[in-house]
Specification:
The protein has 97 residues and is of the alpha+beta class. The chain is 25% helix and 29% strand. It contains two helices and four strands, in the order βαββαβ.
Length: 97
């Protein structure tokens, strides 16, 4: 019988990331004036030293969506998992990469 590959949330696998490190996170959401503020607020919850001046913005062609790249100081896999979970559940956010 073959064993199943570990799930992405399986924390028993060794990390390929060396912590702490600068880690970019791309967020795609509705192009709304509150989106960037909401994302930077979440980033500061997980990285108190987060610098909002480093945020990169890229609007979609039609202007309905906005790509937001934040770069946080990642300190653990648990921190990354939790920030991805928090960003993904925000009502204006469509995708987190």
């Amino acid at each position: 019988m073959r064993s199943q590959p570990p799930s992405p949330a399986d924390n028993t696998q060794p990390s390929l990331i060396t912590y702490p490190c600068q880690f970019p996170i791309k967020v795609m959401g509705q192009n709304h004036e509150a989106l960037v503020g909401a994302i930077t607020h979440i980033a500061k919850q997980f990285d108190p030293e987060f610098d909002a001046t480093t945020v990169e913005l890229r609007p979609s062609k039609a202007g309905n969506y906005l790509g937001v790249t934040i770069t946080i100081t990642a300190t653990s896999r648990e921190q990354l998992d939790e920030i991805y979970r928090t960003l993904s559940t925000h009502p204006m956010v469509k995708v987190v990469l």
